[in-house]
Amino acid sequence: xxxxxxxxxxxxxxxxxxxxxxxxxxxxxxxxxxxxxxxxxxxxxxxxxxxxxxxxxxxxxxxxxxxxxxxxxxxxxxxxxxxxxxxxxxxxxxxxxxxxxxxxxxxxxxxxxxxxxxxxxxxxxxxxxxxxxxxxxxxxxxxxxxxxxxxxxxxxxxxxxxxxxxxxxxxxxxxxxxxxxxxxxxxxxxxxxxxxxxxxxxxxxxxxxxxxxxxxxxxxxxxxxxxxxxxxxxxxxxxxxxxxxxxxxxxxxxxxxxxxxxxxxxxxxxxxxxxxxxxxxxxxxxxxxxxxxxxxxxxxxxxxxxxxxxxxxxxxxxxxxxxxxxxxxxx
Length: 331
Description:
Layout: E1 3-5, E2 14-17, E3 20-23, E4 30-32, H1 39-46, H2 48-57, E5 61-67, E6 71-78, E7 83-90, E8 93-101, E9 108-113, H3 115-125, H4 141-150, E10 162-163, E11 170-171, H5 173-183, H6 187-190, H7 199-241, H8 243-248, H9 253-268, H10 272-284, E12 287-291, E13 300-304, H11 305-308, H12 311-326
């Protein structure tokens, strides 16, 4: 069983707060992946009850408990964020625990995430998710989080790029998830979601695949074809000058590598059937919930697939991705 080593806040770590000392507890340096950490054990180690009481009586210290339908959160922070931690609990088990201390001679951080608990939470959140769309703990944390957020865990049903949720506009959570999957070359997770019954999810994955298709075509034109022609001319020259050498180099490693790249791109890019589905979705003229930047406030609008998947809109999708690539958000 693989064990994950974490950066420790401290095995036994005391923080001076307004001339009083409160122990932030002990944090395990190793975690057995098959055994979750119990929330009650961590809270006891952090002396949560006393920390809450201390925060209620001392200015500049804050301790909160929050609960929604599935998660329980515990958060402490000192004004100026000199010291803080946040615990996210699901069914009495630690899903995530983050902490930071900056008001000591050496800054200390800890980051703990239980993939098993995240999957249990995500599948409880998405009660109707078919087994064919479920992932396992073998996936990296960032991929697991992005994939399930795209599917709707803690995200809104809205399609767009920038939404003005507050004074500072931001990418939608599902847009962040799509970009994360694209940047990690996880087209294998995006492509199956193109026909998802949720139109917003379908639109996010379709526009990501349209951009991936464009990017793959550029790779073929600018990289693969020139390399292929170069090798072809080299082999042709060998054939003319030295037939025995040509026979030995008839299937060089470089050629096989190019063939594998082409096969992989062909598998990942949009097929004629995929484009046929996109055209059918466009012609169905269904309404999609969208958010728009530049409106000055958060508001949901409705747009039809006929407009969102028109030739002009597809060109805009590609240009949008290229724009965000230039800004460093898309690889």
